[in-house]
Every structure is written in C-alpha cells, then in structure tokens.
Automatic annotation (TrEMBL):
Active-site feature positions: H413, D464, E473
GO molecular function, one term: cellulase activity
Enzyme class: hydrolase
Organism: Vanilla planifolia
Protein name in UniProt: Endoglucanase
Top-rank taxon: Eukaryota
Keywords, sorted A to Z: Carbohydrate metabolism, Cellulose degradation, Glycosidase, Hydrolase, Polysaccharide degradation, Signal
The keyword Cytoplasm is annotated on this UniProt entry: no
Amino acid sequence: MKGCLPLAALSLHALVLLLHPAASSAAHDYADALAKSILFFEGQRSGPLPPDQRARWRGDSAVSDGSLDGVDLSGGYYDAGDNVKFGFPMAFTTTMLAWGVVEFGELMPPEQLRHAAAAVRWGTDYLLKTIAHPNRVFIQVGDPLRDHECWERPEDMDTARTVYDVSPERPGSDVAGETAAALAAASMVFRETDRPYADRLLDGAFRAFDFADSHRGAYSDDPDLKAGGCPFYCDFDGYQDELLWGAAWLRRASRNDSFLSYIQDNGKTLGADDNINEFGWDNKHAGLNVLVSKEFLEGQIFSLQSYKESADSFMCTLVPESSSSHIQYTPGGLIYKPGGSNLQHVTSIAFLLLTYANYLSKTSQYVDCGSLSISPASLRAQAKKQVDYILGDNPMKMSYMVGYGDRFPRRIHHRGSSLPSIADHPQFIACKEGSVYYSSTDANPNPLVGAVVGGPGEDDVYEDDRADFRKSEPTTYINAPVVGVLAYFAANYGAQ
Ligand SMILES: *[C@@H]1O[C@H](CO)[C@@H](O)[C@H](O)[C@H]1NC(C)=O
C-alpha cells in the first residue's frame, strides 16, 4: 500500500523526511566523542596543573589540600560541578577509567590511550596519597555544605577544606575497598609501560584492601563522617560489596590465589548471592558479577558459576525479548532509573554489556535467560542503542555530551564552566558574587568539552537549565565508563 502512494499525496513534511532519512540513521563520530570524553577529566582536575594541560581555561586550585591535617592531599578530581573531593566516587571513577583501558585500551588510537592513562594516573596519584599514612585513609577534602553555598571557581575557592579520614576506630571498608579496586585495576594499565609505578599501585591496593578487611564498617555510619559525605555520597548499600570487588580486582591484577579463596570463602557472608541489579559508585554488584564471571568462563573456576548466573540475570533485565522483569526505559528508549544523574546508570550498564559480551564471545558462551539465549552481539546492540541515544539519536535530537555534535547542553551545572575563566578574568570572584553567572540564561563561557550530563527525564525531555542539577550536572562517574565504551564503538563502527 505504501509503495502505491502517489508522490503528490505526500505532505511537504513527509517529502523532506523521505529525502533526508531520519537523523538517527547518521553514523556517529565515535572517535571524536572518545577523545572528548577523556578531555573532560582535565576540566575536573584539582591541584597544580601540569604543563601539558589541554583544558587551558582551568588554573591551579586547592594546592594546599591536606594542610589542615599536616598532610599532602593535593590533586585528584572534583566529583562534579562543585569543588569537593569525595573519595568514594573518585575511587570508583578511577576504577572504571582503568577497567576501560584494561578491556578496550588496545582499541584506542595511541594518542587517546596516552590521554586515558594520564586520566587514570591523575586519580591514582591522589589515591596513593590518601593511603600513605598507617592506619588512616583520607576519604574527602572540602566541607560540602559550605562549598555548595557558593558559586565559585575552584581557582578562587575559599571555603573550608576540611579533611575527613577513616581509621581502625572509625572504619570505612567501602572507600578503602574501592580504593583497593582502583589501584589494582590501574596497576594493569601501567604494567607494560611503567612497571615501578604498577608495582607501587599493586602494593597500595594490597594495603588498602587489608585495611578495609581488617577494620570492617561503612564510613557513613560514623556521625562525623556522615556529616561530611552524606547526603551526597552516603554508603547506602553497605561495605560488603566493596570488599568482594576489591578482592576481585586484586585477584585479576595479581593472579594471587589468596584473593580467589577470599571470594570463594566470603561470597555468601558478604552478600554475593543477593543478586542486586545495580552498578554505580555505591553498589558494585552487577559489575562484580561480570568481573568474576571472567574467572568462571576463562579460568574455568567452576565454584564461581553463581557469578555468571547473576550476571546473566542482570543482562536478561536489559534485553526486551527476555521474559524476566525489565528495567525501565523512556519512550525514546533510554535506560531510566529515578534519582537524578540518570546517565550514570546508562554509561555503566553500557560498559557492562560490552565487557560481558567480550567475555562470553571469547569462550563461545551466551546469556541464559531461561527459555531464551541471548548472544554477545545482542548485548552489543543494546549498548549501541544507549550510546547512540546519548550522542543524539533521541527525541530532543541533541547530544548529551558537551561539545559533541551541533546541539548539546550549553548551561551545565558546573561552577568552573559557568563562571568566566581565570585566564580571561583573573580578578577574584567571591562566593556570592558568582550568583549572577549561576542565574544567567547565557551559555557557559567555558564549554567543559566531553562532559556527559545527568541527562533527560523519564519523558526524554531536557531543558538545559543550569539550576536543574539532576539533569544538567556532569559527574566523573558518568564519564568514566563511557571512555571504554566509545573506544569499542570507535574501533568497530569508526570508518564508514
Ligand atoms: C598473596 O597474597 C597474600 C595476602 O593476601 C600474601 O600474603 C602472599 O604473599 C601473596 N602471594 C604472592 C605470591 O604474592
């Protein structure tokens, strides 16, 4: 019937659509997006900046962090659009950046691999400082309530740089366990190119894990630490998953059997069977299941079969054809979880889809969804849909990565990006003087190129409103998983 429709009957609108097939079928420049996703991390740097800094609108900041406690805690990353260094999400960010290089680094152009390794190192140089003192792990610098009262560039910041730490008396197995994971994963990034550094990282990972395991507890159970980290990054789901996650990364990086035994002996008591379909800075379960499945699939360690079963059941919730109960999607097809910064879920899940697909295809396996088997190719197709949505195939027809494509967020919730650059405007802008820039409807003067924002709501709508931080704020843990994901698509769908 359609084929018989006379041309004259078509409206002008339909004709235009025929002549220009929907924008969604245009191929994306994944290589461009990859380079930008890594560049983003330079905009989040804290501490003295190196000579090869490419994001030139930034300057040195928080160079004396730690001095209130007589220690050096300069460096590391601001977590998002503010100027606080939260250790829990920073360590997770570093783990995910490193995992991306471990799985997909060989697909990256050499220049991008170098930049990605530098982004990992900016995290690990700081994390090594946080564990440099016996029986203490520094978990945060900056008073978040004071910081959030100001709209101030990091270079001008003059709010309290309060130092928070955990100790045997006030444990933090969550932060310490994630720090162990980050250092172990990063040791694999540098194993070939900088062996002494890789050894330092692995040694640090052993110590951080030992501390986490010997003094068990969640950092946000302590009233003082809770006042610091909560409500922003409370450990809602407990520290048990970070112990297994840290052990799994130590096993992978060191091949030491004692960590395999740890996982086998402690899996049950630490909740490995809880089968929680979450993966993010707080909850590591789905990532843990994928990571440990590699040991089962490739290492043929059959006692770990339950991890593959849990990973399968997670994947089944993502595949529309399967009969299991499904994760929520927006009408436009985006994975959606309530709570703000939704794209953090999308990027981390896309990462798991691709990584699990690699483990499965290497061993000629598939996802077991009961009556249905799902192929690695199908997992990759799911990941591609999510990434393409982020890059512009969505109802708003915009990219959610700053600087990618023609239409992208211009008014992101980010102090440094929205205030004049220290390079153009060296005069001090005080805490409340920044409010006019916060309230302005102008585009941010310093595009934070590569930043993926929190993203649209469950109706696929995005207003580009600086005040709406749930949608317009970028975070390091939204971007970290996307680096490996884009490396995969740049290599496999790049030159068309
Ligand atoms: C394996 O790790 C344990 C600590 O959990 C350590 O005592 C042991 O020396 C390690 N073995 C090797 C070969 O590195």
